[in-house]
Amino acid sequence: MAAELVTELGKITISEDLIGDIAGFAAVENYGIVGMNAKKVELFKRDNLRRGVQVTLVGPQTVAIDLFVTLEYGVSLPAVAENTKDNVKYRVEDLTGLKVQYVNIHVEGIRV
Hints:
Shape: elongated
Helix content: 25-40%
Distance between the termini: 38 Å
Oligomer: single chain
Largest sheet: 4 strands, mixed
Number of helices: 2
């Protein structure tokens, strides 16, 4: 599925993969996040920004995002999660024009 924006000039279709790439890039640029964890088995281990990102279309112009991350040891988990949520929400809304209903952070591990 894909999100759709309708303007007076026509229809814009935005794929879930693109939204996942934007969310993944926004997540890894935050201090404290050292990795993204894939939630599905990948046959070809390609390093891409979508790994660890699950995008759900809630409506035609609304998305929900789940991030599965590994954090650096010693950082404040709530502070890193809150900063990441704010950054991902801002980036996705700014670059796509879609509304982000929520961003969930799932901490899968901690690395030294």
